[in-house]
Automatic annotation (TrEMBL):
It comes from the Bacteria. GO terms for molecular function: alpha-amylase activity. The keyword Hydrolase applies. The keyword Hydrolase applies. It comes from Marinomonas mediterranea (strain ATCC 700492 / JCM 21426 / NBRC 103028 / MMB-1). GO terms for biological process: oligosaccharide catabolic process. Residues 14-405 form the Glycosyl hydrolase family 13 catalytic domain. Gene3D superfamilies: Glycosidases, Golgi alpha-mannosidase II, Oligo-1,6-glucosidase, Domain 2. It holds the Pfam family Alpha-amylase. This is Alpha amylase catalytic region.
Length: 543
């Protein structure tokens, strides 16, 4: 039986292949290494994997700078290794999503080499080339996410080209229909190879304003925005003209039409911008564009349950018939165990479990980032150990993305059992006690708790798609119900260090008269909560 709706409520495990498992001792994780660890991923109880880029690349942005969309970088393996990934994953019942970085290519891509070679070659209009102003200055005030103006001078064409990220990541010109055809061909290439879907990198950046109007200034900057600090001018612009342009809708419809030729596939768009919710709603409503988008709302430093509730309510309310997808960590942000720790506090494993229960109790699909299931804290690196250009540019206030990309600790032996060689980023000593092998052996470990809760979630569709009703929130506690036609589950979370008493008296629902419902008893086991079962019961929760 085909299940074209499998993606609604699926749990996606993100693999950053460089740092997952190294099969040949060169210090870099690879596709054969991923194949070896697929049984581990399947054992977690997730539904799909999303593999970050493994395409041919000069690795200036560690694969998010693609120089050949239709081949595997030799460092990661071969196309046939990728076929093994698909085959093995499918054998273990896992779907495979891959990253597509369509907004920009590497400057080493054949398309860019041709486009930059002259003013009148067949691909001359494939990138965003603009003459300098009469006084030689750059075309407008657009800024790059990775620092400085979004314009790079090219001496051969004697023009500027647009780059929203590194200057070695030139933006493709989506206003050119040939570019659209070319990128859709690459998408088809992977669909034909058997992938089940895509995570679309920077899905809101594809189009720019053809009139090149200046972005307007922003007086105040929201605290804790991603990659954004007071001295980063990027944050002080509204990015209304360099991205999130209306032309994108028609493109996403063409993309969806292509996806729909391959039943049981799905898409997740990455949407980070001002007014992200409106953009996500536009991209996911109506069932004819992206299946899902994920926002950056829970990738910030604000872990108060009040913020979480507000975010959940806003997204629930704002998406309409769009389906939400949540994540609390990825390869671009500080690891959640550290990011959501109290100031100066040791990493609290019990709290990691509560955050997991929260994430997996939200209505929608979920992306987990490798190592989250181990509760890994951010890898602490010195300036000399950094390799991420974004981190090097904005050190020390923003320490970049290396700390969340250090390799997985599989065992507590040397290099965490990740590699027999010298890892491209160190396996940090502080991660060794978190090794997967060790946690497999401990019944109360974070890893085991993930497995238990993921299995629990599978048995309770109310958790995935049931209605949600919020009963209470404050800084440290959050209480809500999830209701399906057959059951109501009470989710009560306490991230504080102290016991909390939450009253159910305001609840508008009644639990069954029987003693504890199975659902509640099972929640108790995985995350060690005590829960009341009657409307008038006080419930006491402690992490
Ligand atoms: O990230 C996109 C990204 O960095 C932006 O969304 C940014 O954080 C935000 O707009 C700031 O306001 C993706 C990849 O996840 C990342 O690893 C790549 O480096 C980047 O695209 C470029 O491909
Ligand atoms: Ca390797």
């Amino acid at each position: 039986v085909k299940n074209t709706e499998w993606w609604r409520g699926c749990v996606i495990y993100q693999v950053y292949p460089r740092s997952f498992f190294d099969s040949n001792g060169d210090g870099i994780g690879d596709l054969p290494g991923l194949v070896e660890k697929i049984p581990y991923i399947a054992s977690l109880g997730v539904d799909a994997i999303w593999v970050s880029p493994f395409f041919t690349s000069p690795m200036k942005d560690f694969g998010y700078d693609v120089s050949d969309y239709c081949d595997v970088d030799p460092i990661f393996g071969t196309l046939s290794d990728f076929d093994d990934v698909i085959e093995t994953a499918h054998k273990f019942g896992l779907k495979v999503l891959i990253d597509q970085v369509l907004n920009h290519t590497s400057d080493q891509h054949a398309w860019f080499k041709e486009s930059s070679s002259s003013l009148d070659n067949p691909k001359s209009d494939w990138y965003v080339w603009v003459d300098p102003n009469p006084d030689g200055t750059i075309p407008n005030n657009w800024l790059s996410v990775f620092g400085g103006p979004a314009w790079q001078w090219h001496s051969r064409r004697r023009q500027y080209y647009l780059h929203n990220f590194l200057s070695s990541q030139p933006d493709l010109n989506f206003h050119n229909p040939d570019v659209i055809d070319a990128v859709l061909d690459t998408v088809r290439f992977w669909l034909d190879r058997g992938v089940d879907g895509f995570r679309f990198d920077t899905a809101n950046y594809f189009f720019h304003d053809v009139e090149l109007r200046n972005n307007s200034a922003k007086e105040e900057v929201e605290e804790g925005s991603i990659g954004v600090r007071a001295d980063n001018p990027y944050a002080y612009q509204f990015h209304e003209y360099d991205k999130s342009r209306p032309e994108n809708i028609a493109f996403l419809k063409r993309l969806r039409a292509l996806m729909d030729e391959y039943p049981e596939t799905t898409t997740v768009g990455e949407v980070g911008c001002d007014f992200a919710l409106e953009t996500m709603a536009k991209y996911t409503q109506g069932g004819d564009k992206l299946h899902m988008c994920y926002s950056f709302d829970l990738l910030t430093h604000d872990s108060s349950m009040t913020h979480i509730r507000k975010t959940m309510e806003e997204i629930e309310g704002g998406l309409g018939d769009g389906w939400p997808c949540w994540s609390i960590g990825n390869h671009d942000v500080e690891r959640v165990a550290s990011r959501w720790a109290e100031k100066d506090e040791q990493i609290n494993h019990e709290r990691s479990k509560i955050h997991m229960a929260m994430l997996l109790s939200m209505r929608g699909s979920v992306c987990l980032y490798q190592g989250e299931e181990l509760g890994l804290p951010e890898g602490q690196l010195t300036y000399d150990q950094l390799v991420d250009p974004f981190g090097i540019e904005f050190w020390p206030d923003f320490k970049g993305r290396d700390g969340c990309r250090t390799p997985m600790p599989w065992t507590s032996k040397q290099n965490g059992g990740f590699s027999d060689g010298t890892p491209w980023l160190p396996v940090v000593d502080a991660h060794l006690p978190y090794a997967a092998e060790q946690q497999e052996a401990e019944s109360e470990s974070i890893l085991q708790t993930y497995k238990t809760f993921l299995a629990f979630r599978k048995q309770h569709p109310a958790l995935v798609s049931g209605d949600i009703e919020f009963l209470h929130d404050d800084k440290e506690t959050l209480m809500f119900t999830r209701t399906s036609p057959t059951e109501t589950l009470l989710i009560a979370l306490n991230t504080g260090a102290e016991k909390a008493a939450l009253s159910l008296s305001e609840a508008k629902f009644a639990f069954p008269d029987s003693s504890e419902s199975t659902a509640l008893r099972q929640i108790e086991i995985p995350i060690g909560l005590t829960s009341g079962t009657r409307v008038d019961t006080d419930i006491h929760l402690a992490p």
